[in-house]
Amino acid sequence: MKKLVSLVTLFFAFTIAAFAQDVKTVTLEQTKGDFTVKELKLSEGTYVFDIVNKGVDHEVGFVLIEAGKDASNKENHIKNAYVQKTVKEGETQSSKEVMLKKGKYTYFCPLNPTPQYTIIVE
């Protein structure tokens, strides 16, 4: 019985440690036709993207893809990076948690629309 309790305790300790990742927030502002941040350098990890609509008179969004992939193909979009609601003028919306591994990524807004910008994960 003691072994069973020890095993269950050990299992829960590992489970909690696995879910206790440090989630970082990246805030990106959109103005008319542009993100104010053109390139980001981040470390590997889990991120939430807060997207701010600063003066765009219509709703905006956020798309993240691995660099080099076709941005027009929605299958290449990292779905968890989408904001959970389109962002109205003067508001902020967040993505779900996104795990970024080493490499390059591209972000843009198809609704604004903006150029494609780079995230480098080291």
Report on the architecture of this protein.
With 122 residues, this protein is mainly β. Helices cover 15% and strands 37% of the residues. The protein contains one helix and nine strands; from the N terminus they run H-E-E-E-E-E-E-E-E-E. Strands 1, 2, 4, 6 and 7 form a five-stranded mixed sheet that branches. The protein has a four-stranded mixed sheet with strand order 3-9-8-5, with no helix packed on it. A hairpin with an 8-residue loop joins strand 8 (103-108) and strand 9 (117-121). It is globular, with a radius of gyration of 18 Å. It starts with a helix and ends with a strand.
Please outline what is shown here.
This protein has 122 residues and is mainly beta. Helices cover 15% and strands 37% of the residues.
List the helices and strands and how they pair.
Layout: H1 2-19, E1 23-31, E2 34-35, E3 39-42, E4 45-53, E5 63-66, E6 92-94, E7 98-100, E8 103-108, E9 117-121
Parallel strand pairs: 1-4, 3-9
Antiparallel strand pairs: 1-2, 4-6, 4-7, 5-8, 8-9
